[in-house]
Design brief:
Oligomer: single chain
Order of helices and strands: HHHHHH
CATH topology: Helix Hairpins
CATH architecture: Orthogonal Bundle
Number of helices: 6
Helix content: 55-70%
CATH superfamily: MazG-like
Largest sheet: none
Number of strands: 0
CATH class: Mainly Alpha
Strand content: under 5%
Radius of gyration: 18 Å
Length: 119
């Protein structure tokens, strides 16, 4: 997790050096994050799954990597502004999902936990 802490610190320093805190409201950051996720999705929008089965081209991988970086940067910044520890919250969410999606009922199924057969 040290790498994530280092990145978060670097993002904060980058922001502060440019006096951008004033623009980094939760709403503004959430909208920027949505925009970047949209840009990530647009790289794959018109590609069939069968086109990607054999692997992703170097050119597409580079574009995807750039968009993934933007998404991560905005997610980290949003978390900083809102006082959220994204790693702790992700661990808590996985724990909840382990309860919601027991292996015996969910293995191989894409059903939502509310639609899984009861044990």
């Amino acid at each position: 997790m040290r790498d994530l802490d280092d990145l978060a610190h670097r993002i904060e320093k980058f922001t502060d050096a440019r006096d951008w805190r004033q623009f980094h409201t939760p709403r503004a950051l959430a909208l920027a994050l949505v925009g970047e996720v949209g840009e990530l999705a647009s790289e794959l929008q018109w590609k069939a799954d069968s086109e990607l089965v054999g692997g992703i081209s170097d050119d597409l991988r580079a574009r995807l990597a750039d968009e993934v970086a933007d998404v991560l940067i905005y997610l980290i910044r949003f978390s900083q502004v809102c006082g959220i520890d994204p790693v702790a919250e992700a661990h808590a969410k996985v724990t909840r999902n382990e309860d919601r999606y027991p292996v015996a009922q969910s293995k191989g199924s894409a059903a939502k936990y509310t639609d899984l057969p009861q044990a």
